[in-house]
Fold:
Amino acid sequence: MKTIRVLIVDDSASVRTILTEILDAEADIAVIATASNPYFAAERMRDEVPDVIVCDIEMPRMDGITFVQKLMSQRPVPVVICSSLAEAGSQMAMQALEAGAVEIITKPRVGTPQFLMEARTRICDAVRAASRARVVARTATIDVPRKLTADAILPPASGRPIERTTDKVVVVGASTGGTEALRRLLEALPESSPGMVIVQHMPAGFTTAFARRLDGLCRIEVREAATGDRVVPGLALIAPGNHHLLLRRSGAQYHVEVRDGPLVTRHRPSVDVLFRSAARAAGANALGVILTGMGDDGAKGMLELRTAGARTLGQDEGSCVVYGMPREAMRAGAVEAELPLDRIPAEILRLAADPSTKPAAVKR
Structure:
């Protein structure tokens, strides 16, 4: 088993200590060094280049965003941003993702034992995901929570056929690398595109800024979801961080429900929960899309979608930052067609306009 070598960069000594204790407790992760600012980190990297860097944003001498930009232009290394939940920090975290960071986690803090355990799980999972990420040059052993399934939030569908409607709904799941993939996907869609409901693995406090950023870039409206929001053409609703998002149906109309609950497939929000709810509420009226990400969240839910008659698409390996979630969905037989990211928007529009059309050929 290859050990993931981590460099921690944070101006807080206590944060460096906590992160080191959390990561060093894992058999497959080792902290090779810590640094109080990017300049000391750069000196340390002359001796040994880490597999992953865990980096704060607000630091003396050089901020984390500038550090990420310099890394990606000179010596690309996967970076996990470790930030507070402040609104200003959320905006900066979005900038860090645009600069090339692959994950966002929140700084560990005092809380309930369950909170601390979940925080440990997120931090270690983020480092593992980052270690598998493809990064390219750009210009300028602890106990973990039991891996629950969507049954913990929503029972399986009854198997009864679902009445077709004229409105189609697109449900999308993404994780590592998904912030950039979603930007490219949504930017390519016209105002007339079908309503979308999205789960991107992201902590609480970041999704509001993420949705606001996308809304300013896209022709469609993008916003953080709230219980009762209707799913209508030209609108994309993003699951709030640390909350599950479910699709519901009332007559011929769709709306969403934001719900608390345990981690499902190690995540909250969970793609499996969204996809299962869409299988129950929309069936053949739905179109499922699974994008880049580590792990298997979404594979079981997408299979339920396909079984219910929905069309299903996966992002191909060549365009993924981490080909984990789409690969597991493919292995489960849940994906009808695998496509490069830049072809997915047109395929969504084509299948939504004529669900009976044959999907693009599956890449083997």
The longest strand covers residues 29-35. The chain has two domains: 4-131, 162-353.
